Amino acid sequence: MAKDLVQYFIVNKDLKMSKGKTAAQVAHAATLSTLSLMSQDSPFQDNQADFIEWVQTGMKKVVLKGKWTELKKIEEKGYFSIHDSGLTEIKEGSLTVIALPPMEKYEAKEIVGHLTLLKD
């Protein structure tokens, strides 16, 4: 049976970023997490088989929103985090997005099941 693999992104809604800024930050998270997962020394080495299957099955993604405190707790678990360079809308060093590696929905539910979809 095929796995239901999804990559989740959690956007820091406390920052009130514009839609364009949010899109750019999620793109940073997607790019950096993919490059890391393709690396031989990835901290998520045991996720590489899931990563390959995820790529081959359409790269399903879900973007959620959370408060800074929620993102910080997830960041502390070692997931991919994006901190802004401060060149445009927000303060340098601001935590903007967390990306999880592709994983099965039931696994992600333990980490992000309390968060809601980013719709605005």
First-to-last CA distance: 35 Å
CATH class: Alpha Beta
> Helix- and strand-based class?
alpha+beta
Question: Rg to the nearest angstrom?
Answer: 14 Å
Task: Describe the overall structure.
The longest helix has 20 residues, at 19-38. The chain contains four helices and six strands, in the order βααβαβββαβ. With 120 residues, the protein is of the alpha+beta class. Strands 1, 2, 3, 4, 5 and 6 form a six-stranded mixed β-sheet that branches. Helix content is 38%, strand content 22%. The protein has a single domain, classed as Bit1. It has helices at residues 19-38, 48-56, 68-75, 105-112, and strands at 5-12, 61-66, 80-83, 95-99, 103-104, 116-117.
Outline of the structure:
The chain is α+β, with helices and mostly antiparallel strands and about 120 residues long. The chain has one domain: Bit1 (3-Layer(aba) Sandwich).
